[in-house]
User: Fold this.
Amino acid sequence: MSDAPMWVEVVVAALLVASGLLALIGALGLLWLKNFFQRMHPPALAYTLGAWCVTLAAIIFFTEFEGRLILHHWLIIILLCIAAPVTTTLLARAALFRQREETVLQKRKQQADNGERDAG
Amino acid sequence: MSPFLAGAITLTLACYALAMALTVIRLLRGPSAQDRVLALDYLYLTGMLVVLVLGIRYTSHMYFEAALLMALFGLVGTAALAKFLLRGEVIE
Assistant:
């Protein structure tokens, strides 16, 4: 196998390392941020920019390698563009619902305790 | 594969491995169920990126299909888990 031209390798390597760093930053955010609604944001970094970088690197690399335009890696970007907002919205709604339910339960418990104290 | 590109790919895979390790910590610790679902979704995404990079490393088109399936099943799994958290059952 013959090696690719230098500029192709530099571009592909830069895109790959950038996506690796973005995924790492996303994971750090997932670990460090304080509550769930803050933690929902860092994965978007890898979902959009990280996946775009890898896909562009794959397109450039395979196009150069095969000598013809290879574009089917776009499918992954399209799929992720559809998937990311759907999962984020569903998870946010689930989290909001559970939070509300918890506060309602706590209030009821408090009221019950107060009632017991009044009766006693 | 030139040593330069191979080194860059190794660095990228190391970054992904570290990211997955941090995500697993969140998955095990995560105070609430939705935190765990989010971490699982992120694990799916990072695994898919690893598969894509391996496809470049071994110059094979087979890895692309695996990555596509992982993206699809990540969406389905996370949507089902979120639905379960919201309603208590997946299909009503």
In short: The radius of gyration of chain B is 16 Å. Residues 55 and 63 of chain B are 5 Å apart (CA to CA). Chain B has a mean pLDDT of 91. The helical segments of chain B are 3-29, 33-57, 62-87.
